[in-house]
Design a protein that fits this description.
heterodimer; A: mainly alpha; 12 helices; B: alpha/beta; Rossmann fold; Alpha-Beta Plaits; 6-stranded mixed sheet; 4-stranded antiparallel sheet; 11 helices; elongated
Chain lengths: ~280, ~300
């Protein structure tokens, strides 16, 4: 355990020192500023609407829609961070030989993989707290509204990021940095498109299309996790407005969460095994 | 406790169809400085990596500090300076040593004193707060040496430790190796600089085509002499019979060479040759240089470097 914590501290330290996180945080703040300005002006528009016809419930739906748009952007930033931050951590150190100075220490190789994984997971969790918390706080201050089930929603977004982080770490044990990046984004793209096919299939009641989407989600359950997060955070009325990125027509079951957890654990174990058995 | 720091028997490593190490059979005693010599591509680095558990062996057996190859607990007593060292260059020298001390599990109270002592030992006290990315190659090599000694190891692997160093840096490394020997630490030195090896090593092994082809003690050699003979029409029988006067009888560069334990054998050999009816053109003694031995063992086509 000592090794895992030392490596995770090293990982966090390295990410901070290399200013990758600083760049991502600055980008995130830029996004929050734009979101805050947009939310503020939209709110003013709604309040000063000459129609004056919006009921309280309609206003709430507009706010929730804007919040979901903000959280969708946060979700995408998390996907980017989860895939890109660790993409070079093992493959780059293996290529340069820097890994040799770690592997020859009294550490199990598993501790190196798990330590790096933990370090990046802490960074991702912190980034989600900052960005997701920022969106919710801005919305709360401007409109006084908070979506329902926010902790379930944020936990599902974190699980999605954890899954992609794990794929990126595991891929880095054998693939070059470029190949690993292509693989992780390729898998994310597959899940994304699969998710849309599933939604369209559900909308048009085309079971074949729906099954194709479900199979894509089983191969990589990342998009399903976002859809489930979005479903949980919206009020019932809004859930019925299908065909937006935030209102799934086909709601993933909770079994998908169990599958995603098992999938993440399996990929992590595969990554450990792959690193443990390779020549360096 | 076993007296061997390293013991291997027929260690072999294949990468697909390519045989990187065919047969690594050697013993390194605790407290001795052991030179591992061979031309490029001879399998030296792969051998070191097998001993450190960085690559898995294809076959054969090996023990390091009485533990199987790659044993995690044994690594706490091993230091390693890789040839192509790439360190965490975003850390300062002092932070780098602190990180590696923590990876060795050295307690906080001992860590600081150990780091300061080693920074002084490798003459990097003044540069300790500078980032490694600002270090020269020689400075990186010295900080790497310090990192390899953090755990007060019983066995240190030094892969080309002086290749990037100026003469003062080399002197530091040489002194450190002498100190390690005095402390009873075994040093496995992989170097192309034969003059350095000759000064620092107790024993050497020559590796060619992934196989240890000869092991010899350098300190013993210094008490021995090599006799060079030039005779008319040397025969295999003559070479065989000369073995009664010494060891390692071989023909090289137009002469017969053999190693004996003193100059008293020269007249003895001369008398014997004359009695056998052999015409002797030249007989003399010389201490062989390591470079000469290297070329002789490796063959004329091999060059260190």
């Amino acid at each position: 355990m000592r090794g895992i914590f030392t490596i995770s501290q090293l990982t966090i330290h390295e990410t901070l020192r290399k200013r990758v996180l600083l760049a991502a945080t600055l980008l995130g703040f830029a996004f929050l500023v734009i979101f805050a300005l947009g939310f503020y002006f939209m709110n003013r528009e709604v309040i000063n609407s000459p129609r004056g016809a919006e009921t309280q419930a309609q206003r709430a739906l507009i706010y929730i829609f804007l919040m979901m748009a903000g959280l969708y952007a946060v979700n995408f930033l998390m996907v980017m961070m989860a895939a890109l931050l660790p993409v070079d951590t093992l493959s780059g150190e293996i290529r340069s030989g820097a890994i040799q100075s770690l592997v020859t220490k009294p550490l199990r190789r598993a501790e190196i993989v798990l330590g790096k994984w933990l370090g990046f997971w802490v960074i991702l969790a912190g980034y989600l707290a900052l960005m997701g918390g920022g969106v919710l706080l801005i919305a709360r201050i401007v409109s006084g509204i908070t979506p329902q089930n926010i902790f379930i929603g944020l936990a599902l977004i974190l699980l999605e990021a954890t899954l992609l982080l794990t794929l990126s770490i595991a891929g880095g044990t054998r693939l070059s940095t470029l190949a690993n990046g292509v693989l992780v984004f390729g898998l994310f793209g597959l899940a994304f498109i699969g998710g849309w096919i599933e939604q369209i299939g559900a909308l048009f009641q085309n079971e074949t299309a729906r099954y194709v989407g479900v199979i894509a989600s089983l191969i990589v359950p990342s998009e399903s996790l976002w859809q489930l997060a979005a479903y949980n955070m919206q009020p019932a009325l809004m859930r019925d407005l299908a065909m937006t990125p935030f209102s799934p027509a086909s709601v993933p079951s909770n079994a998908m969460v169990v599958w995603a957890l098992g999938y993440t654990l399996l990929v992590l174990l595969l990554g450990v095994w792959s690193f443990r058995t390779r020549d360096l | 406790m076993n007296h061997s720091a390293i013991e291997t028997n027929a260690l072999r490593k294949e990468f697909g169809a390519k045989v990187a190490v065919a047969d690594l059979t050697l013993t390194v005693q605790r407290g001795e400085v052991f030179g591992f010599l061979g031309p490029n591509g001879a399998g030296k680095t792969t051998s070191v990596k097998m001993l450190l558990g960085l690559v898995a062996r294809t076959s054969g057996e090996g023990r390091v500090l009485d533990a199987p190859l790659g044993n995690v607990a044994a690594r706490a007593k091993i230091g390693f300076l890789p040839e192509h060292f790439r360190f965490q260059d975003w850390l300062s020298g002092r932070e780098f040593l602190d990180l590696h001390a923590r990876l060795y599990g050295i307690e906080t109270e001992n860590r600081k004193a150990r780091i300061e002592k080693l920074l002084t030992r490798v003459d990097l006290q003044d540069a300790a707060n500078r980032k490694l990315k600002e270090y020269s190659k020689g400075m990186l090599q010295r900080i790497g040496l310090a990192a390899a000694l953090l755990n007060e190891p019983q066995l240190v692997f030094l892969d080309e430790p002086t290749s990037g160093l100026d003469p003062l840096g080399r002197l530091i490394v040489r002194d450190v190796i002498q100190e390690l020997r005095a402390q009873g630490t075994a040093v496995f030195l992989n170097s192309h600089l034969l003059s350095e090896v000759e000064v620092t090593c107790d024993r050497v092994a020559f590796v060619k085509n992934g196989r240890v082809i000869r092991e010899m003690g350098l300190r013993e050699t210094r008490n021995e002499i090599e006799i060079e003979l030039q005779v008319k029409n040397p025969t295999p029988n003559l070479l065989r019979d000369l073995a009664q006067f010494g060891k390692n009888v071989r023909q090289w560069n137009g002469s017969i060479h053999l190693e004996t334990d003193g100059e008293s054998h020269i007249p003895e050999i001369n008398r014997w040759l004359v009695a056998q009816g052999v015409d002797v053109y030249k007989i003399g003694a010389a201490k062989p240089s390591l470079e000469k031995m290297f070329l002789e063992v490796m063959g004329e086509d091999a060059r260190a470097g």
